[in-house]
Amino acid sequence: MTNDMVDLFFSFRGRTDRQIWWLGALVIAAGAVVGTALFNDGSFDESANAIPGSLTMAAFLWLALCIYVFTALCAKRLNDCGRARWLRYTVGLPAVAIISGWGAGAFLDPLHFSEETLVFWALVSLTVPAIVACAILPEREEER
After folding, report:
1. Count of CB atoms within 10 A of residue 110's CB?
2. Nearest to residue 28, comparing CAs of 8, 48, 42?
3. Cα-only R_g, the chain
4. Which end of the chain is more exposed for a tag (fewer CB within 10 A), N or C?
5. Count of C-beta atoms within a 10 Å radius of residue 13
6. Of 18-32, 40-54, 69-83, where does mean pLDDT reach its minimum?
7. Is the pLDDT of residue 31 over 90?
8. pLDDT tens-digit readout, 60-89
9. What CA–CA distance (Å, rounded) separates 15 from 22?
10. Is 55 exposed, middle or buried, given 0-12, 13-18 or 19+ CB atoms closer than 10 A?
């Protein structure tokens, strides 16, 4: 079972069905929120020059791991749906840009209108087609 979980969350090869994708996505989302809340605590602030409101290094590394795991899970699901391989990059790359921007002090208030907010929402919108495909498309009929 352990090898199956490691393969599910860390390998980009293979396929997974919609039910497993939903379960994995919910677990990853919950883990990302809880981990970020724990690691973004002031006690993890390793720099006196840290940008107020930005991520601590521990939270950044935790979110980077969550993005990798979610991208691997989406890649498996997109393989199962029969979608193009390049679509998996529309999940991971915008997420990496968002987390990197947040760590650098951008995207601190995504609901306040500004140029960086437009960039934030443009990056978020890039991930939507792949995530919707993972969430609703049926499996291919070929042999698993």
Report:
1. 15
2. 8
3. 17
4. N
5. 9
6. 40-54
7. yes
8. 889 889 999 999 999 889 888 888 878 878
9. 14
10. buried
pLDDT (0 to 100) of residue 46: 61
Residue 49, SS3 per DSSP: coil
CA pair distance 20, 5, nearest whole angstrom:
11
Among residues 65, 56, 72, 64, which one has the least CA distance to residue 24? 72
Read off the tokens for 134.
């993972």
Residues in CB range of 92: below 8 A, 6 or more apart = 67, 68, 70, 71
Locate 125 and state its tokens: 């919108």
Mean confidence (pLDDT) of the chain: 83
For residue 79 the two structure tokens come to 């393989």
Which amino acid belongs to residue 137? Answer: L
**Does pLDDT of 140 surpass 90?**
no
Report field, pTM of the whole predicted structure over 0.85? no
